């Protein structure tokens, strides 16, 4: 029993990551109909926003410490962050440690800017082009973006730890009446789950309850008619793209403490996010979120050794297997709309 | 371009009866030469095949730096590095056999197909007489088989799987790096001394060949000293979040977690394990412990503070105090501004060992080089007295047991050496069950 | 993806005289059953493949540009093999519009089948390749039967899921069958019942065609040039020509018309009483067999089969090759395959040492500056160039490389009005 609760919890936070990435993708791909292979790269850039902010906060000047020597036997060069001088050592240290949460504020404008620039500069010209062309151009863009990141940050994963306040685990088991230390759940994953829930809720509320959202939803359903009504739908689609980029970026920022960012992490998540969106059903935001959580939880269960012992290798293929079963059982995924990307 | 006239064809062209179309019907591997890519000009070309894209790109970049440094030293530029400390004095700093060393580079992408394509282009287009490098066992095994077929020497880079010199060994291939078995044999006594002999281990193993051999090696070594293996779970290579594998560990009754992961997998599984509070946890009345059999300092950086206090093994570390290591660190550090990684070290050493073997053999002929390397005993390359065993072309030398440092003084200073396990303790017979199957075959000159 | 043909506009150096939509009936058959324009295209491909050792080695060995020569056996073989792969993929994608994102699985299955033949039966490449094609075909029949129940993106994701499952299993659980991470290799103690386990000199025998070793080469030296004629390459090239010829016949056949009908309007096809599914399945299987053929050839040139051949990036690569060259055109996919493989093998090998050699004639400051500018795009940065090229091609050449060729030929032919209109009205194929 406790093992199952444990895997549901694990599935929830895996699922919230999948759902967040898929949510951004489905705004662009499921509704604007643009096959955006650069979406993973947006997620990756989000994660690197946190890295960048942490680098900025810990920007340092160099002093020579004569008492110590470096690996070549020369006097040791010690880096002192400017933050220490501005805020005092203790406060400066705290600010640097809180780089990841602070990066949320830092990343939102950057990601919106990148998203809008991408749409205005590139994607706009591809709405009417075949999907094949969209694949080629966004794949090219994804490669370029990740190579730029690699050029500046290297290929190795970069540690982006959570603030010390969030290290350690929360004992869920004690809460539910199990023995201590049986069901532990790291605080940061709890934060990630809550964060994802807030973002998902905010996006839905935005599309559901604002005039802007209403127009966009109308535009998705019938772009031409909305245009004929004299509404500038193009501008709103640009904003949508910025929004999608921001959602992807935020998913990346907060994922840093769980998965040390590296330049190819976008590609690692790209295929998965497409699977989630399609399993959820094209054109359906709730579908994408549901599919994200479903696949996350099933993946967690498949990685239990009791399950692997019965079906070896199931943990390797579970996501794809479930995707196949769902798509064969339900022609348009969980909640797909008829006619979207079906031809 | 100054290099072009050094390629095999360029060299051949000068030798061939110049002018209009004369076709020489010979085999691809041999041409007019006694063996593949015999260097007949004033230079010799080596092929450095390292990952330049993909997850191991930084490790590959470090390997390439080491090779470039080795070429400098072989050609008598720079401070000579470990040529000065090397026990064999055949190298004179005038190239190899008086021929200036040139090199070509390629990208393995850490994929066996791409690695073989790159190696074949070095052999077929650039006339490389030796291929070296790589940062994974899959690539090493694939390229080693190719070199055997084409008749050139392969000096493996970073490859830790038992298979490279076990079931997939080849006569033309040589490995200086240590292997899974040695990691297990070196780690076990240290683990026993620190954690006791009554422990229950839980293995998480990367689900591919290297993971299998490492799990097998660690299990058999630790079980021999009394540890019990509670469970061993395989994790997909492409896994990005290990939480669902780590979470059940505490419930399993285990009190040690062994992470048979490398590279990005290791960074993530270790980070996750620490996040789940395993470091602070108690199990069976003991402190819960984590072990990482193979450390990579470059990658360990990605795990940040999570590596502190965690035992593992490594082939070489820049903080070693022997003269050879110090010389190499000084040489590399002066050139590039930071200390070399173990990948850089093994690649540098492999380049020197090859050059030395050619000098001693008096020829670039692969079979002569193989003969010179087989059973070769040397010292002064940073690992103490070392033997290139003839039976399987594996180097036998001391193995370092290291631990993540509690108070690192710099971004390079992540590991501290706990013990230098003497070579006798990690030596195994060539027919050891973990290395069973496969045969060296006979050396191939490509003729 | 139905509006492909309308929006990609003109393409294909072929059949200008014949409106593509005119149907198969009543066509005048020329040589080998091909219309004149198609026959000229075939002749062009014959010339290109047969003279490849010359065409790909345009620079003398002694010149600095020799780095850009691609006329060595391995790369020539790769050009041709990936060309076959892309031609096959294009039969499915270019004609029916079904975008398979898991085609590499068939290539992988073909490779494994061929290597197992080498291990168990013998080193002759013909039976190995036949088995590859057969296995891939059967596998494609199975996968196609399931996946073709869906269309559009749902079909793409289904094929992707199958291929990813193949990769994951081959890399891990199926290691005894596939060799896992290290790939399936030949060994000295393989049975090879119709051949020898090892050669007299104690080595593993190499793949051959009735005794003609695939790696045998003949060199030709002319002035500063060296040209290599490799047995394996010419074997692959002949297979490519046969594949290409078959593809032309398929494109021009009534069957091909049916496939195009699937792409343009499945609904209408059903109303006319035709069931599109068997046609789509046939195209899927044919295209899977092409992939298996490519896999078998790959193993014949270099007897090793690795699981990463089936990874989604490999499937993605053939999609990119096809689009880059010009989806739906006959020659486009081959060109796309060639360009990507060329970049991968040539650009990645240029290092800073070579750059310094090239620009040594410049004053020091300028030399360093030029190298600093170029360096991020070559060697370890070759991916960046690849990405930029993808974007540039799709932005400036909406029809892929074939369109570039067309624009050039149009410019050469002059600005004769009817030429332009003629090719504009042409159906994209």
TrEMBL record, chain A:
Annotated coiled-coil segments of the chain: none
Membrane spanning stretches: 16-35, 42-64, 95-114, 190-216, 237-258, 270-295, 307-329
GO CC terms in record: plasma membrane
Entry keyword set: Amino-acid transport, Cell membrane, Membrane, Transmembrane, Transmembrane helix, Transport
PANTHER family associated with the record: ABC TRANSPORTER ATP-BINDING PROTEIN, BRANCHED-CHAIN AMINO ACID TRANSPORT SYSTEM PERMEASE PROTEIN LIVH
NADP is among the record's keywords: no
Pfam families named in the record: BPD_transp_2
Family, similarity comment: Belongs to the binding-protein-dependent transport system permease family. LivHM subfamily.
Membrane topology value: Multi-pass membrane protein
Top-level division of the source organism's lineage: Bacteria
Record-level Gene Ontology MF annotations: transmembrane transporter activity
Designated name of the protein: Amino acid/amide ABC transporter membrane protein 1, HAAT family
Subcellular location: Cell membrane
GO biological process: amino acid transport
UniProtKB/TrEMBL annotation, chain B:
One Pfam family it belongs to: Peripla_BP_6
Residue stretches making up the Leucine-binding protein domain: 43-405
Secretion signal, residue range per the UniProt entry: 1-34
PROSITE patterns: TAT
UniProt feature coiled coil, ranges: none
Gene3D superfamilies, alphabetized: 3.40.50.2300
Keywords: Amino-acid transport, Signal, Transport
Gene Ontology BP term (one): amino acid transport
PANTHER family: LEUCINE-SPECIFIC-BINDING PROTEIN, PERIPLASMIC BINDING PROTEIN OF ABC TRANSPORTER FOR NATURAL AMINO ACIDS
Entry-linked NCBIfam families: TAT_signal_seq (TIGR01409)
Family: Belongs to the leucine-binding protein family.
Protein's UniProt name: Amino acid/amide ABC transporter substrate-binding protein, HAAT family
Organism, scientific name: Citreimonas salinaria
TrEMBL record, chain C:
Organism encoding this protein: Citreimonas salinaria
Membrane disposition: Multi-pass membrane protein
CDD domains: TM_PBP1_LivM_like
Location of the protein in the cell: Cell membrane
Ranges of Low complexity composition bias in the record: 15-25
InterPro entries named in the record: ABC_transp_permease, LivM-like
Keywords assigned: Cell membrane, Membrane, Transmembrane, Transmembrane helix
GO MF annotation: an example: branched-chain amino acid transmembrane transporter activity
GO cellular component, one term: plasma membrane
Residue segments, region Disordered: 1-25
Bias kind Polar residues: ranges: 1-10
Lineage: Bacteria, Pseudomonadati, Pseudomonadota, Alphaproteobacteria, Rhodobacterales
Protein name, as recorded: Amino acid/amide ABC transporter membrane protein 2, HAAT family
Membrane-spanning intervals of the chain: 39-59, 79-101, 121-146, 153-174, 231-251, 278-298, 318-342, 354-378, 384-405
KW Membrane (keyword) present: yes
Principal localisation: membrane
Recorded superkingdom: Bacteria
């Amino acid at each position: 029993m406790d093992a199952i609760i444990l895997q549901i919890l694990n599935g929830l936070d895996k699922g919230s990551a999948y759902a967040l990435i898929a949510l951004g993708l489905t705004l662009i791909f499921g509704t604007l109909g643009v096959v955006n292979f650069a979406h993973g790269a947006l997620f990756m850039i989000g994660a690197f926003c946190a890295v960048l902010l942490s680098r900025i906060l810990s920007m340092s000047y160099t002093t020579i410490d004569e008492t110590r020597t470096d690996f070549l036997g020369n006097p040791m060069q010690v880096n002192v962050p400017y933050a220490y001088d501005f805020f005092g050592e203790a406060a400066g240290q705290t600010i640097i440690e809180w780089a990841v949460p602070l990066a949320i504020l830092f990343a939102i404008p950057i990601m919106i800017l990148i998203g809008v620039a991408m749409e205005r500069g590139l994607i706009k010209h591809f709405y009417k082009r075949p999907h094949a062309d969209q694949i080629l151009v966004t794949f090219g863009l994804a490669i370029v973006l990740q190579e730029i990141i690699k050029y500046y940050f290297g290929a190795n994963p970069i540690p982006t730890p959570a603030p010390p306040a969030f290290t350690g685990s929360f004992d869920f088991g004690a809460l539910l009446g199990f023995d201590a230390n049986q069901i532990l759940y790291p605080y940061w994953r709890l934060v990630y789950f809550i964060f994802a829930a807030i973002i998902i809720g905010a996006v839905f509320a935005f599309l559901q309850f604002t005039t802007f959202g209403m127009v966009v939803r109308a535009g998705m359903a019938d772009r031409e008619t909305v245009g004929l009504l004299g509404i500038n739908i193009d501008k709103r689609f640009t904003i949508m793209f910025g929004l999608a980029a921001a959602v992807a970026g935020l998913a990346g920022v907060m994922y840093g403490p769980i998965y040390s960012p590296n330049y190819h992490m976008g590609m690692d998540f790209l295929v998965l996010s497409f699977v989630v969106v399609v399993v959820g059903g094209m054109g359906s935001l709730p579908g994408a979120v549901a599919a994200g959580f479903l696949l996350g939880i099933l993946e967690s269960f498949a990685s239990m050794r009791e399950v692997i012992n019965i079906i070896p290798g199931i943990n390797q293929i579970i996501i794809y297997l479930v995707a196949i079963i769902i798509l064969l059982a339900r022609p348009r995924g969980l909640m797909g709309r008829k006619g979207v990307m079906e031809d | 371009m100054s290099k072009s006239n050094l390629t095999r064809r360029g060299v051949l062209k000068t030798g061939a009866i110049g002018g209009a179309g004369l076709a020489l019907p010979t085999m691809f591997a041999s041409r007019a030469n006694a063996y593949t890519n015999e260097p007949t000009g004033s230079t010799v070309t080596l092929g450095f095949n390292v990952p330049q894209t993909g997850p191991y790109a930084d490790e590959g970049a470090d390997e390439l730096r080491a090779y470039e440094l080795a070429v400098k030293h072989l050609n008598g530029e720079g401070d000579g590095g470990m040529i000065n400390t090397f026990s064999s004095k055949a190298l004179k700093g005038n190239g190899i056999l008086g021929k200036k060393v040139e090199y070509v580079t390629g990208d393995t992408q850490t994929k066996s197909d791409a690695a073989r394509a790159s190696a074949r282009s070095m052999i077929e287009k650039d006339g490389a007489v030796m291929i070296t490098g790589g940062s994974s066992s899959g690539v090493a095994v694939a390229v080693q088989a190719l070199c055997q077929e084409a008749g050139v020497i392969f000096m493996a880079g970073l490859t830790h799987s038992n298979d490279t010199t076990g079931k997939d060994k080849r006569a033309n291939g040589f490995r200086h790096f240590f292997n899974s078995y040695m990691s297990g044999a070196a780690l076990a006594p240290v683990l026993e001394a620190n954690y006791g002999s009554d422990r229950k281990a839980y293995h998480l193993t990367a689900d591919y060949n290297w993971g299998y051999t490492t799990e097998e090696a660690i299990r058999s070594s630790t079980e021999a000293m009394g540890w019990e293996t509670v469970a061993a779970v395989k994790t997909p290579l492409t896994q990005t979040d290990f939480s669902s594998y780590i979470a059940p560990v505490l419930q399993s009754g285990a009190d040690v977690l062994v992470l048979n992961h490398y590279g990005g997998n290791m960074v993530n599984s270790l980070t996750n394990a620490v996040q789940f509070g395993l470091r602070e946890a108690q199990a069976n009345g003991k402190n819960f412990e984590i072990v990482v059999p193979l450390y990579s300092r470059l990658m360990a950086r990605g795990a940040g503070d999570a590596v502190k206090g965690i035992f593992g093994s490594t082939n070489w570390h820049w903080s070693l105090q022997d003269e050879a290591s110090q010389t190499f660190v000084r040489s590399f550090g002066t050139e590039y501004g930071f200390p070399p990684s173990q990948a850089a070290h093994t690649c540098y050493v492999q380049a020197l060992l090859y050059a030395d073997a050619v000098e001693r053999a008096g020829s670039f002929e692969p079979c002569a080089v193989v003969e010179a390397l087989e059973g070769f005993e040397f010292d002064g390359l940073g690992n103490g007295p070392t033997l290139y065993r003839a039976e399987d072309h594996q180097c036998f030398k001391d193995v370092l047991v290291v631990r993540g440092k509690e108070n690192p003084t710099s971004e390079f200073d992540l590991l501290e050496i706990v013990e230098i396990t003497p070579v006798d303790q990690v030596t195994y017979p060539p027919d050891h069950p973990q290395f069973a199957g496969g045969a060296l075959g006979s050396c191939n000159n490509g003729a | 993806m139905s509006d492909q043909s309308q929006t990609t506009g003109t393409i294909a150096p072929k059949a200008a005289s014949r409106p593509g939509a005119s149907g198969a009936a009543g066509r005048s058959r020329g040589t080998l059953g091909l219309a004149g324009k198609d026959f000229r295209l075939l002749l062009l491909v014959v010339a290109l493949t047969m003279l490849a050792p010359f065409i790909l080695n345009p620079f003398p060995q002694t010149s600095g540009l020799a780095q850009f020569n691609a006329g060595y056996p391995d790369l020539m073989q790769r050009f041709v093999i990936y060309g076959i792969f892309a031609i096959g993929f294009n039969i499915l994608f270019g004609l029916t519009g079904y975008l398979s994102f898991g085609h590499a699985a068939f290539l992988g299955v073909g490779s494994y089948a061929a290597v197992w033949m080498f291990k168990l039966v013998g080193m002759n490449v013909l039976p190995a390749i036949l088995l590859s094609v057969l296995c891939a075909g059967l596998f494609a029949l199975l996968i196609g039967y399931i996946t073709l129940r869906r269309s559009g993106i749902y079909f793409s994701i289904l094929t992707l899921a199958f291929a990813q499952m193949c990769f994951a299993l081959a890399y891990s659980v199926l290691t005894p069958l596939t060799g896992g991470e290290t790939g399936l290799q030949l060994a000295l103690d393989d049975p090879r019942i119709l051949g020898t386990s090892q050669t007299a000199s104690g080595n593993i025998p190499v793949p051959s065609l009735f005794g003609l070793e695939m790696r045998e080469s003949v060199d030709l030296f002319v002035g500063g040039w060296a040209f290599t004629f490799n047995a394996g390459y010419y074997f692959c090239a002949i297979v490519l020509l046969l594949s290409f010829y078959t593809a032309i016949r398929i494109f021009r056949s009534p069957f091909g018309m049916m496939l195009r009908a699937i792409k343009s309007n499945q609904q209408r096809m059903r109303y006319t009483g035709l069931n599109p599914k068997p046609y789509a399945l046939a195209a899927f299987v044919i295209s899977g067999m092409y992939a298996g053929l490519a896999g078998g050839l790959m193993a014949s040139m270099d007897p090793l089969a690795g699981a990463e051949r089936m990874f989604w990036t490999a499937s993605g690569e053939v999609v990119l090759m096809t689009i880059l060259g010009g989806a739906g055109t006959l020659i486009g996919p081959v060109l796309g395959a060639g360009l990507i493989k060329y970049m991968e093998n040539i650009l990645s090998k240029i290092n800073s040492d070579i750059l310094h050699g090239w620009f040594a004639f410049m004053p020091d400051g300028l030399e360093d500056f030029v190298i600093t500018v170029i360096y991020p795009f070559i060697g370890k940065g070759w991916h960046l160039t690849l990405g930029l090229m993808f974007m540039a091609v799709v932005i400036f050449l909406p029809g892929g490389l074939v369109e570039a060729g067309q624009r050039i030929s149009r410019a050469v032919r002059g600005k004769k009005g009817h030429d332009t209109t003629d090719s504009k009205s042409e159906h994209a194929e």
